[in-house]
Amino acid sequence: MSRPKIISLEGLHFSYTTSGPPVLKDLSLEIPAGAVTAILGPNGSGKTTLLFILLGMLSPQKGEVIIDGKDQKGLPRSVRSRLMGLVPEEEHVPFDFSTLEYVLLGRAPHLGILEQPQEVDYRVAMEALGRAGLSALADRPIPSLSGGERQLAKVARALAQSPRVLLFDEPTAHLDLNNKGRVLDMIRSMANDGVAVVLTTHDPNAATVVADHVVLLRAGQTVATGPVDAVLTSENLSQTYGLPVEVTSVRGRPVVLPW
Amino acid sequence: MAEAHKLQEKSTIRRFLLLGVMVLAVLTLSLFIGRYPAPYWMPPSYLWRDELAQRLVLYLRLPRILTAFIMGMSLGAAGTVLQMIFRNPLVSPGFLGVSQGAAFGAAVGIIYLGRSPLIIEASATLFAFSGLIISYLLARNIRYGKWILRLILAGIATSALFSSGVGVLKYLADPLRELPEIVFWLLGGLWAVTWRDLLYILPVVLIALSVLFLMRWRINLLALRDETAFSLGVAPGRERVLVLVAAVAATAVVVAVAGVVGWIGLIVPHIARWVVGPDARRALPAAMLIGGIFALLCDNLARTLLAGEIPLGILTSLAGSLIFVWVFMSDHRWVRR
To answer: Would you state the CATH architecture of domain A5-68+164-258?
Structure first.
């Protein structure tokens, strides 16, 4: 990999209970800066667990996570939250926050515990809403948005956070074609701005559209990692998903078809 | 678009001004509402010509009015933040064993510790806090569900434990002297409030509400899921405990003085969110003002309507449940907000 790396994982070992089976086994990989990395694998392969370890929510029993040259464990909360953001898969908000108020929450890492958002934070939040194409919905309550608009609002909140690394958990699950396109476009444009994007997905075709770099995960171990064209082969994918898979090319782009 | 946000701010300021005017009006008018010299209304001129009226207002009505207002502020604020950090709009401030703990403590005070008001209050406060501590320790050791669910389960168990204790004490109590006092305490009321009671609750309430008010924007973040809050630099567990302790401390001292006054902490946050929206920067102060107004109006009815005192808890439950049904059955709630 020629690009500089922003995250590297070394010998990661993780299980949720002391006696239970490990979710991640001796996992090592590197995430390039300023590119989109897709963590691809079947349900239950450890994708979300890996994402939460990158975030620092879960601590691995063995191994280390180095982010931007520093040990994840030693990062203070304020530094970590300005460096790295998360777009969670599902987020139920039980109160009728307006979309602007919701996106404004992304400014938290830049404000102290007793501080209130200022004019500049509102400006950043409005810009983020604009980039997500949600300016017209700024005053609408979040629960009244469609599923696609809510997903875009979550992305806008992460944009307002202005992190250098952004983690997405299943960004395109449950979205229609149009919204899937809008979300993937935003991911692409953030990567072009120099943000390192890490996303999990179980859908290989979402990965082929947006990713530069792919990590194939099966049962907590990597099957293959590298650039999309090199990694997304029929053999690798068949091994990952445990069924025969064919990769063809449509208009110069790999398309994955199960047999 | 920035103009839209300015516009919204303007209408918010108008709403708070209106609330402020209502607070002043209700506080002032309450001084003249009562059963002296005649039922319901005392002409203000009595204040400078009737000595009994002066003493009545200064030593009975004023401390009671202020205590009612502060009680409503505390319960409204505590309800708002607890509903937010538990991500559940049906949570009320006493649910972590606090209300039932206070009731148990008061019953112990009435039966075994000599029935002096100070002792009853101290015992109720002590057991209210032990309700919280038992709930918290239980929640840490429950091996099921996430943090929020565990605390709710622990709160249910602790409340049930104390309410069965109250049942036992009622059974043991002297049916002529002690039992009526316990029952009346359980129904809640402020008939015995003096300046001393106000001074007793004031320091705790001031500190607790100041902490909540200063953290008002941060509390929005605690209403998000753990992983999102964490990714935004929040320590979800630690900060929720801080907010929880502040809210419950205010509730505990208030309940110790006023008894179990239900529904204020449940319904006032809904009214506040309906008036100014759910962002805690506005909803929290609005809940304090609305809670104060609501509690004071109910207490005015409690001390004025009949020749004898009506227990406050009965009136707050009645008014609260009616408003609750109205809020949830009216569709305007979904049209704009």
So the answer is: 3-Layer(aba) Sandwich (3.40)
